[in-house]
Structures are given as structure tokens and as C-alpha cells.
Amino acid sequence: MTRMFTVTVERGHGDWWVLEAPDVGAVSQVRRLDQVEDEMREAIAHLADLPESEVEVEVDVRATLPEDCVEHVGQARRLRAEAEAASRRAAEESRLAARSLRNRGLTFRDVGSIMGVSQRRAAQLLRG
Description:
Elements: E1 3-11, E2 17-21, E3 26-30, H1 36-48, E4 55-60, H2 67-103, H3 108-115, H4 119-127
Parallel strand pairs: 1-4
Antiparallel strand pairs: 1-2, 2-3
């Protein structure tokens, strides 16, 4: 069973990020944010007397960012999620459209022309 630990991150001196997991008193630093989880998982596991495989790390860098940055990051994430959902819906509609056109006797080439995709892509849509 895994346990979740929150690690707060703030910009330190120079190029360093200062890390803290207050639940266990772990403190460290890294140069890049992509190093936070690995760095802190090991420290937290040691201090909490847990195997590293049971430690999950939630990185909270937003607490130390200016409010306008937090808002922009949040909005960008929401919009990306909406775009991904719309892309999934568009893919499903494309498959349905290709199937519907093909069921009416159209060739792959004609299906592709109507849908604005290549003949090959039209065939792929029908397989998906």
C-alpha cells in the first residue's frame, strides 16, 4: 500500500530548488524540477521507514509561485484537458463518419476526399 507525501518546492539561491516534505522532516535541494520526485522519494522512505516502492510524491511548486503564474498554469492545464477530450471526441466522430460513408458504398478514396484525409487514413479509421 502506498502513502502520499506532499513535497513543497521553492526557488532557493542561484539555480537551486529547495524541497521539503514536512510530514517526515525531509529537506533537500535539486537543480531541476524533474529531479524532485526521485530525490525526495529516497529521503522520505528512509525517514518514514518505508520501502521506496510505497512512497508516492506529490510536488507542490505552486504555493511559492506568484498568483498570476498559478492562474495561467491552471488555465493552461484546463484548456489542455479540454483539448484532449475534444480530440478524443473528434476521433470517435471521424471513425463513425468513415464507417457511415463506407456502409453507403463509397470507396476509401471517396471517404478520404469527403473527410479531408488520405485514402490510407480513411482505411485506418475504419479499422479503429
